[in-house]
Amino acid sequence: MASKRVLVIDDSNTIRRSAEIFLKQGGHEVMLAEDGFDALAKVNDSQPDLIFCDILMPRLDGYQTCAIIKRNEKFASTPVVMLSSKDGVFDKARGRMVGSQEYLTKPFTKNQLLQAVQQFGTANEGAL
Predict the structure, then answer these.
(1) Which of 58, 62, 98, 126 has the fewest beta carbons under 10 Å from its own?
(2) Distance (Å, rounded) from C-alpha 108 to C-alpha 110?
């Protein structure tokens, strides 16, 4: 599988670090952001293939962050996977409403993370 540029947005240093380790073990390039504002600047600079976004963050939550990213036509097709410690139907539905592709419950495993990259990280490549 080709290496992907993945952005992980989470206000928890522990979650960011474990996601970074898992993704790098999978051969991917990883950028980290600690909140929505930080992420918005980095999305533009790094143009990731896939974004993992925590829901509960200070200042700008994951839903708002995802909605803003999706509103930019340059990133409208970039897959966003929401991360949350809550596994609620409402949260999943709300994530879909703002344009996220998938929803992972924390704590996630290395396999879940890499599987999501494999599943969604090809969206920007178009049909071969």
Answers:
(1) 126
(2) 7
- Tokens representing 119 are 């599943």
The Cα–Cα gap between 2 and 35 comes to 28
> Of the candidates 100, 96, 57, which has an alpha carbon nearest to the alpha carbon of residue 76?
100
**pLDDT tens-place string over residues 69-114:** 999 999 999 999 999 988 788 888 999 999 999 999 999 999 999 9
The pTM (predicted TM-score) of the whole model is 0.92
Residue pair 72/47 in contact (Cβ under 8 Å)? The answer is: no
* Helix (H/G/I), strand (E/B), else coil: 72: coil
pLDDT at 123: 53
Listed residue (107, 121, 122) closest to 54, CA to CA? 107
Helices and strands (DSSP H and E) totals, the chain: 5, 5
